[in-house]
Amino acid sequence: MRAVIIGGSGHVGTYLVPRLVEAGYEVVNVTRGRRKPYRPHGAWNAVGQVTIDRTEAEKTASFGPQIAGLKPDIVIDLICFTSESAQHLAEALRGRVQHLLVCGTIWVHGHSVVVPTTEEQPRRPFGTYGMQKAAIEAYLLNEARRNGFPATMLHPGHIVGPGWEPINPAGHKSVAVFEKLARGDELALPNLGLETLHHVYADDVAQLFMRALANWSAAVGQSFHAVSPSALTLRGYAEAVAGWFGKLARLRFLPWEEWKETASEAEAAMTHDHIAHSPNCSIAKAQRLLGYAPRYTSLQAVHESLAWLIAHDRVHAPPLS
Ligand SMILES: NC(=O)c1ccc[n+]([C@@H]2O[C@H](COP(=O)([O-])OP(=O)(O)OC[C@H]3O[C@@H](n4cnc5c(N)ncnc54)[C@H](OP(=O)(O)O)[C@@H]3O)[C@@H](O)[C@H]2O)c1
Question: 10 with 32: CB under 8 angstroms?
C-alpha cells in the first residue's frame, strides 16, 4: 500500500510517518522541503520526499493532479485549510484512492454547548480557521455519504510534544507563564480560571490516523476528535504545573478586560481564541468505532513537553518532579 502524506514533517507527521513505515506502507512525504521532523527516526530513510509548494501548485490547479500522479492508495492531507483546497484534491483523487484522511481541528465546533462535545453536535464555528475547517468537513462528509468518496476527517486539539511550546495555563504560548509558576510567582488568569483547553499528545493524533486507516469501513464518511481523554481548566492546569516544581500556584483572577492588559496583544488574542472556544471534546466515538486509546492525558503530554523545553534551555526552570 502506497501512502502519500501531505505536510508530513510537522507536529503530526513527525509521529505518523514512522508509524506508517512500521506498519508496512510505502510512504511518500510531500512538503516544500523546508522543515525537518521534530525527532529523528530511522524510518525516515525509507520515505520518499517530493517537493511541492501546495499554495503555488493550487494557483495553476496542478496540485491535485500531481498528488494523483504519485499513484497513492491512500492520501493523508495534514495541511488543508479551505474547502476549495479539499474540493480540488478530492476531484483529482475521485475513483483513484482507497482512503483520503484530512486533518481538521476541534475549532469546527465554535464554543462548547453540551460537554463533552460529541462529533454529532451541530457545527457553530466562528473565526476563519474554524469556519473553513467546518466547510471542509461538510464537503468531505457529504461527498462520502452521497457520492461514495472515501473520506475521513480527524479533529485534533492543541497538539503537544517535545520540541515546541504547549498552550500554557494562561491560554497562550509564552514560556514565561511556566517560568512564573516554577518560581512560585503570582500568575494572573482571566475570569475565574475555569475556561478550558483540550490538549493532545502528537503521537496520539498519529495513533488515531492509524486506527482510522485500519478500520476503513467504520471511518469512511465520519469525523473523529483526536484529543486527550479530558480537557483542563486553566486554573487546574496552573495548579498542576506549579506542583511539578514543588510550589503552590499563586493565582489572581481578573475580569477579561483587565486581564488582557497584563498580556501582549498577540498573547491576549491567542488566549481569547482559546477561552472563547473553551473546548471540551469527547473521545467516546473514536474509542467505540476505532479503538482509540490515547496514551497521554493532557497533563502527561504537557509534562513531557515542558521537561524537554527545560532540558533544552528554552524554559528557564529547575527540572520537573
Ligand atoms: N498545531 C496544533 O496544535 C493543531 C491543532 C488542531 C489542528 N491542527 C491541524 O493539524 C494540521 C497539521 O498542523 P501542524 O501544526 O502539525 O502543522 P505543522 O507542524 O506546521 O507542519 C506543516 C507541514 O506542512 C508542510 N507545509 C507547510 N506549508 C506547505 C506548503 N505550502 N506546501 C507544501 N507543504 C507545506 C511543512 O513542511 P515545509 O515547511 O517543509 O513545507 C510541514 O511538513 C493542520 O491541518 C492544522 O489545522 C493543528
Answer: no
pLDDT tens for 89-139 read: 999 999 999 999 999 999 999 999 999 999 999 999 999 999 999 999 999
Phi, psi of 144 (to 5 degrees): -70, -45
- Angle value at C-alpha 108, between 68 and 291, nearest 5 degrees: 75
How many residues comprise the chain?
Answer: 321
Q: What is the pLDDT of residues 29-83, one digit of tens each?
A: 999 999 999 999 999 999 999 999 999 999 999 999 999 999 999 999 999 999 9
Q: Which of 161, 157, 178, 186 is nearest to 278 (CA)?
A: 157
Please tell me the distance between residue 72's alpha carbon and the centre of ligand 1 in angstroms.
Answer: 20
Bridge partners (DSSP) of residue 200 are 159
Residues with Cβ within 6 A of ligand 1? 7-13, 31-35, 52-55, 78-79, 103, 105, 156, 158-159
Beta-strand relationship, 2-6 and 26-31: parallel
CA of 81 to the centre of ligand 1 (A): 10
Q: At 143, list the grid cell.
A: 461527498
**Residue pair 136/153 in contact by the 8 Å Cβ criterion:** yes
Q: In ligand 1, which atom is closest to the CA atom of 79?
A: 45
